[in-house]
């Protein structure tokens, strides 16, 4: 794949990961708050149901959840055969319920003043001599994905702030 297609695909993957991680945090922290209002609890329940389809282990750490998503994508790729430029990898990432997930996240978060996503230690595994071209592409696509997610949520009246350390 060309560098542009790689970056576009990574951005789509990061967008999906960020949405999934926001959902994960909502599920872990919002139950007692959601139970106070039947409408909020209904939105929470729909979000939780959607999350459980993709994340069977609620208490897995980030790297385990990321690996599960990569394995799911690999399985989809294997089922269609060889990936070529005609096989749009981005479509595989967005295939399924990501639009529904985006809507459910926005519906739940709309009543929050703001949402913060803090992303730390992205350079933890990098060699001491400096970042590789692939490392730079990963970070650049993450930055683009956070901006895209901010626009997505902003268009649904959710104030999202992202900070990458």
Structure description:
It contains seven helices and two strands, in the order H-H-H-H-H-H-E-H-E. Helix 1 packs across helix 7 and helix 3 runs antiparallel to helix 6 (98-109). It is globular. The two termini are 29 Å apart. Helix content is 65%, strand content 6%. It is mainly alpha-helical and 165 residues long. Strands 1-2 form a two-stranded parallel ribbon.
Element order: H for helix, E for strand: HHHHHHEHE
Which stretches are poorly predicted, pLDDT < 50 over at least 5 residues?
none
Which geometry do the CA atoms define?
Answer: globular
**By helix and strand content, what is the structural category?**
mainly alpha
Percent helix among the residues? 55-70%
The Rg value, from CA coordinates, equals: 17 Å
Distance between the termini: 29 Å
Number of strands: 2
Strand percent estimate: 5-15%
Number of H/I helices:
7
Main beta-sheet annotation: 2 strands, parallel
Strand neighbour order, sheet with most strands: 1-2
What is the residue-mean pLDDT, rounded to a whole number? 85
Keywords:
mainly alpha, 65% helix, globular, two-stranded parallel ribbon, 165 residues, 7 helices
Task: Set out the fold topology.
Blueprint: H1 3-29, H2 31-34, H3 38-54, H4 62-80, H5 89-94, H6 98-109, E1 115-119, H7 133-154, E2 160-164
Parallel strand pairs: 1-2
Helix pairs in contact: 1-3, 1-6, 1-7, 3-6
Quick structural overview:
With 165 residues, the protein is mainly α. The protein has helices at 3-29, 31-34, 38-54, 62-80, 89-94, 98-109, 133-154, and strands at 115-119, 160-164. α7 (133-154) links the parallel β1 (115-119) and β2.
């Amino acid at each position: 794949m060309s560098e542009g297609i790689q970056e576009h695909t990574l951005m789509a993957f990061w967008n999906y990961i960020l949405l999934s991680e926001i959902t994960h945090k909502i599920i872990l922290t919002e139950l007692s708050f959601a139970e106070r209002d039947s409408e909020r609890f209904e939105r929470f329940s729909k979000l939780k149901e959607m999350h459980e389809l993709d994340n069977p282990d609620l208490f897995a750490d980030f790297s385990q959840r990321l690996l599960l998503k990569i394995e799911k994508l690999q399985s989809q790729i294997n089922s269609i055969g060889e990936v070529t430029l005609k096989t749009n990898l981005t479509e595989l990432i967005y295939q399924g319920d990501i639009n529904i997930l985006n809507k459910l996240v926005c519906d739940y978060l709309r009543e929050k003043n703001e949402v913060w996503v803090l992303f730390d230690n992205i350079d933890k595994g990098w060699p001491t001599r400096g970042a590789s071209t692939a490392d730079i592409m990963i970070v650049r696509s993450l930055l683009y994905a956070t901006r895209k997610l901010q626009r997505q949520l902003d268009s649904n009246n959710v104030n999202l702030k992202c900070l990458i350390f």
